[in-house]
Specification:
The complex is a heterodimer of chains A (220) and B (259). With 220 residues, chain A is α/β, with parallel strands linked by helices. Helices cover 28% and strands 30% of the residues of chain A. Chain A has one domain (6-219): Class I glutamine amidotransferase (GATase) domain (Rossmann fold, 3-Layer(aba) Sandwich), CATH 3.40.50.880. Chain A has helices at 18-26, 54-63, 67-75, 85-88, 190-206, 208-219, and strands at residues 6-10, 30-34, 45-48, 79-83, 93-94, 107-111, 120-125, 127-128, 143-148, 150-154, 160-166, 168-176, 179-182. Chain B has a single domain (5-247), classed as TIM Barrel, CATH 3.20.20. Helix content of chain B is 37%, strand content 23%. Chain B has ten helices and eleven strands. In chain B, strands 1-3-4-5-6-9-10-11 form an eight-stranded parallel barrel, surrounded by eight helices. The longest helix of chain B has 17 residues, at 56-72. The two termini of chain B are 30 Å apart. The chains are: A alpha/beta (220), B alpha/beta (259). The interface between A and B is medium-sized, with 34 and 33 residues.
Chain lengths: 220, 259
């Protein structure tokens, strides 16, 4: 990677940050932990991890003053990388507890339809819907590690990069402009997961001047 | 469709792996992160640490071990053994564990399962159950605790159903009768449990061959198989287990092996 990508990992007490932080550092990113708005400054990408329910997560993000700035920065052109709950928060409303979320993507979050078991825990395959740089070097059917019961249902099906089947089929990898969302845990998906994170950092690095100036415009 | 998981289990005491691991090429066979990484490279779908430290100092060492492992190994990490409260579970999760298994403490205080599930989510609460067949009562198993030494009088099937109702997201089911025997899993026990609960069930106790592990999945309907000694002593490799499963039509995650 030509330049160091600065990633702010949002810490809102929704699961451990150890594995994602170390994965990104091993891949050469500059990683900061963001628990208040000032920590987001200068980041090329905002990474929202997390497991758990959306309503308490949104409540914590608002209490920490992070919810508004995250939405503003992404609207201004910063990258958003969501993992698991961090992907779900991108959408408008969750069936889990009726939470209103970031609304950066249109659509809702619903329970996995026709699931033979819940939570959906374990390795499952990514069925590629359209080519995307995130999956570069990875074959169709690559396994990834999932831990969740709810899934995003995007209003615009064209944002779906991969689907996964667990009873019903759901969107497991979403990408729209500078927004990337993993329903699975790339930081827990072995070498294939690390490959996806490396691809993600590569995409952001290639885009950095634009992203940085967008953030600068917002601050200015 | 979920792939079936193969999980090596490491006994960790005072921060060191105990119980006969034999890999000649490791500089330190007792170092949990090194072994975990070795297993992850060999295709392990998840790593399980069972902490058997008796002293409190061993517990704090465990947190360090979990953190170092979570930093070095990019597959899920489940930690069990001695977690007695939501606070202790939080510490283990914050150190980098993905899931925490509770056993004796849940039997003593079942509300622990509900408390932890509410606080951290069902997905990270594993109920670990050691079951022993009740003599002369076919199809009945009793929950035993403290490494199988202490009977509880609880019916294992009812206990597991109750824990799932309380919020456990996964069941780690060990047959104490088979544990350490390498005589195969207790398929009857597995079938009974997997037919009663919708959460994933990990089969443990008795793995002696790849065929045993395939049977646990295809006949016992387990979602994952866990083993210690056959992997540690290099009797069978994870790849061999997965190859056997794949040949039997069981969906598994095949990992390209380094030469």
């Amino acid at each position: 990677m030509s330049a160091t990508v600065r990633v702010a990992i949002v810490d809102y007490d929704a699961g451990n940050l150890v594995s994602i932080r170390n994965a990104l550092e091993i891949l050469g990113a500059g990683v900061g932990i963001a628990s208040e708005p000032a920590d987001l400054e200068g980041a090329d990408a905002i990474l929202v991890p997390g497991v758990g329910a959306s309503a308490p997560a949104m409540a914590r993000l608002r209490r920490q003053g992070l919810a508004g700035p995250i939405v503003d920065l992404v609207r201004a052109g910063a990258w958003y990388v969501g993992i698991c709950l961090g992907l779900q928060l991108l959408f408008e409303r969750s069936d889990e507890d009726g939470a209103a979320m970031f609304g950066l993507l249109h659509g809702d979050v619903k329970i996995i339809p026709d699931a033979p078991s819940l939570p959906h825990i374990g390795w499952n395959r990514l069925e590629v819907q359209r080519a995307h740089p995130i999956l570069e070097g990875l074959p169709d059917g690559t396994p990834a590690y999932f831990v969740h019961s709810y899934v995003p249902v995007p209003a615009d099906p064209s944002v779906v990069v991969a689907k996964t089947e667990h009873g019903g089929r759901f969107a497991s990898l979403v990408a729209a402009g500078r927004i990337i969302g993993f329903q699975f845990h790339p930081e827990r998906s072995g070498d294939d997961g690390l490959r996806m994170l490396r691809n993600t950092l590569g995409l952001i690095a290639a885009d950095m001047p634009a992203s940085a100036s967008a953030a600068a415009r917002l601050v200015g | 469709m979920l792939l079936k998981r193969v999980i090596p289990c490491l006994d960790v005491k005072d921060g060191r792996v105990v119980k006969g691991v034999r890999f000649v090429d490791l500089t330190d066979e007792g170092d949990p992160p090194q072994l975990a990484r070795r297993y992850a490279e060999a295709g392990a779908d998840e790593i399980c640490f069972l902490d058997i430290s008796a002293a409190p100092e061993g517990r704090s060492t465990l947190l360090d071990v979990v953190e170092r492992t979570a930093s070095a190994v990019f597959v899920p990490l489940t930690v069990g053994g001695g977690v007695r409260s939501a606070l202790e579970m939080r510490d283990v999760l914050r150190a980098g564990a993905d899931k925490v298994a509770v056993n004796t403490a849940a039997v003593e205080e079942p509300s622990l399962v509900a408390t932890c599930a509410r606080r951290f989510g069902s997905q990270c609460v594993v109920i670990s159950v050691d079951a022993r067949a009740v003599p002369d009562a076919r199809g009945a198993w009793e929950v035993v605790v403290q490494g199988g030494r202490t009977p509880t009088g609880l019916d294992a099937i009812e206990w597991i159903e109750r824990c799932v109702e309380l919020g456990a997201g996964e069941v780690l089911l060990t047959s104490i009768d088979r544990d350490g025997t390498q005589a195969g899993f207790d398929i009857e026990l597995l079938r009974e449990v997997t037919s009663r609960v919708r959460v994933p069930v990990i089969a443990s106790g008795g793995a002696g061959s790849p065929a045993d592990m395939t049977a646990a999945v295809s006949e016992g309907h387990a979602d994952a198989v866990l083993a210690a000694s056959i992997f540690h002593r290099d009797i069978h490799s994870i790849a061999a287990v997965k190859a056997d499963m794949a040949a039997a039509g069981v969906p598994v995650r095949l990992v390209a092996q380094a030469a």
